[in-house]
Fold this sequence. Notes:
By secondary structure, the chain is an alpha+beta fold. The chain has 11 helices and 12 strands. It has helices at residues 7-50, 70-76, 86-91, 101-108, 150-196, 206-237, 249-259, 261-266, 287-304, 339-342, 362-372; strands at residues 55-60, 65-68, 112-120, 123-136, 139-148, 245-247, 270-276, 283-285, 309-320, 323-332, 376-381, 387-394. The protein has a 5-stranded antiparallel sheet with strand order 2-1-5-4-3. A 5-stranded mixed sheet has the order 7-9-10-12-11, covered by helices on one side. Strand 3 and strand 4 form a beta hairpin. Helix 5 (150-196) packs antiparallel against helix 6 and helix 7 (249-259) crosses helix 9. It starts with 6 loop residues before the first helix and ends with a strand. The mean pLDDT is 79.
Amino acid sequence: MRKISSLEDIIGIEHSKLGFYQELQQHIAKLKETNRKLDERQNEIQVLLNGLTDMMIVIAGDFTILRTNHVFRDFFGSKKDERAYCYQLFAAKNVPCDNCPVITALHTNTTIKTSLIHEINNNFYHFDIIATPLELAGEQAVQIFYRDTTRDKKLQAKYNQAEKMATVGTLAAGVAHEINNPLSAIQGFAEGIHRRLHKIENTIDQELFNDFEEYTKIILKECSRCSAIVRTLLSFSRPQAASLNPLDINKSIQDTLFILKHRLQEKPQINLQLKLAKDLPLITGDEAQLKQVIINLCSNAVDAIETKGDIHITTQKNRRNNRCGIDFTVKDNGYGIIPEIREKLFEPFFTTKPIGKGVGIGLSTCYSIVENHQGEIIVESEAGKGAAFTVFLPENRS
């Protein structure tokens, strides 16, 4: 027989419910307060992270990006950190980079300090890196700070190049003065002899007269060539402010090759081939600086060929990034560039040449000059099969 609930039983049940609800409300209030404090703490941490001027990334052991700060998102875009692999963003590779700071930090369990160069969106960036191992939710990870030192490296390279060119300019000015004085005398007397030759034409043997005439013409021609070499040397060496004017890139190439003849004569088995397009538009640039780019690229091509090989120099119209301009390419079939070195090519003071053959500021200076001309340098190479350096310069719009 079913028992009928008494009034005391009903009051007891309702009292129990009331106590349960009160306890539940207290727990909810505590959870809300805890969540509020957590949100405040998280906001404080985020404010600290956003106050950093360096790029901050937390990378998991499998190289996926877990967390970033606003510097990273400003650099790559707001959605680039969604479980992307670090080597895909920084090196455009499908495998981890060589000398990866993540691997080193995890294996040694110590903070790693290093410097790296990454090519991102066709631009080279220099980074000072601090990588610290840590543990997140029981998983190993690495926190990395990237400090962009690209501007500092460029300024350092410009300073060293300016100092070097100022020294060479002083030396060249002295050499030009010392050479021009005797050269002017030689040229003056040779011109005097050449003008007077006709007075003795009928008094000496005709064959001897022809020899005298030929010799004086050669002397005058070589004197003019020496004068041109000195003038070209001074145009390269004198430190001067950039002077942007419309110029013909083909003429600049031909003028530059004129003073490179002696380099090519040292390696007579090098075959130089010119294919300069006709009717190219003028570009806006500083002639002395662009000649410096040409001579650096051509000299590197000569050095890349040990004994026998080909160097192709070409120009053509082209369009890059919705801009019309000119491509100037220096291509050789020398020893090429290995992938490990390619990312360091434009780093100041990086060189693969023996001591005394180069100090590593040629390509970094070229990169800086081309960038100042709103242009681009594109490198194509394969180890053992040569290299091609293409300089794109926008055409003159004035």
